[in-house]
Amino acid sequence: MNFECYLQAGKIASEVRENARRKYHVGSTLLEICESVEAQIRSMGAEPAFPVNTSLNDIAAHYTAEPGDATIVKEGDVLKIDIGVHIDGYIADTAVTVCYDPKYEALVRTAEAALGEAVRMARANTKAGDIGRTIESTITKMGFRPIQNLSGHSLQQYTIHAGKSIPNIWTRGSSFALLPNEAYAIEPFVTTKDGQGVVYEGKTRNIFGITSRKPLKDKEADDLLEAIWSRYKSLPFAMRWLTDKYDEKEVRRLMDILTKKKNVHAYPILVEGHGKIVVQAEHTLIPSESGVNVITL
Ligand code: MN
Ligand code: MN
């Protein structure tokens, strides 16, 4: 674990997130937003740890712009911008929700408040279950609902979801305790009271990740697989990251083969069960023996 890399990745992630929070996105396309955020990350000497997620309204997570994506942010939209930055595979994961309709302000404030409470209590030895309980009670007290099947997670070098989950609700049974010098992302997702509080997989899949490098004996597909591996390793990537060197039609054809053969996993978007608005806030932190470093603060 390289603490300096984490700190640097966190600093860049938080600066880029604050730029995204301040910007007026209405009228921009999701493609412009993704490209602008990713360009900022690269200009600061880091790499995106995953394609910037720009999930609108009832889409809670895992939407990134398609090549040429013309989806425009409208006045009443609620947009989650989820940003990953890595240096040498050490990842800072952070998110902000932007919206311009005052009727969603309380919802956005609730996600931020739940994250704040969770971050305040997170130390080495804090039980993940206690964090989940705090997140849930903060959200319900403010009159809203947590998304119960989305959670925070431990992070490891080149691995975003490294096996441990930090729930956004109280869960029965024992839970693990946070370890010093391990990185964790905490990310409450909140919906309205009439939401289901559960997300389901949608049809759209535009974020991908390599799951196996086993050759298919199809030269073009195997070459693409190795090219992706050399660029992104096991980290998620977007189709639009490949169209600089590959023809879009060709890359779609080869990606179809790679996903069918299970060399590549295509992540579905996650949609609120009752089609209600979802908001999110996220920080990455690393407990130490004596305190905690919120690297994306
Ligand atoms: Mn995230
Ligand atoms: Mn995360």
Description:
The protein is of the alpha+beta class and 297 residues long. It folds into 2 domains: 3-199 and 274-294, Creatine Amidinohydrolase (Alpha-Beta Complex); 202-269, Arc Repressor Mutant, subunit A. It has helices at 3-22, 30-43, 105-121, 128-141, 219-232, 248-260, and strands at 47-48, 53-56, 59-61, 78-87, 90-99, 145-146, 152-155, 165-166, 183-186, 189-191, 199-210, 237-238, 264-272, 278-280, 283-287, 292-294. The chain has a 5-stranded antiparallel beta sheet. Strands 1, 2, 4 and 5 form a 4-stranded antiparallel beta sheet that branches. A 4-stranded antiparallel beta sheet has the order 3-13-11-12. Helix 1 runs antiparallel to helix 2 and helix 5 (219-232) packs across helix 6. It binds manganese (II) ion (2 copies). One manganese (II) ion binds next to loops.
Task: Show the helix and strand layout.
Elements: H1 3-22, H2 30-43, E1 47-48, E2 53-56, E3 59-61, E4 78-87, E5 90-99, H3 105-121, H4 128-141, E6 145-146, E7 152-155, E8 165-166, E9 183-186, E10 189-191, E11 199-210, H5 219-232, E12 237-238, H6 248-260, E13 264-272, E14 278-280, E15 283-287, E16 292-294
Antiparallel strand pairs: 1-4, 2-4, 3-13, 4-5, 6-10, 7-8, 7-9, 9-15, 10-14, 11-12, 11-13, 15-16
Helix pairs in contact: 1-2, 3-4, 5-6
The structure holds manganese (II) ion (2 copies).
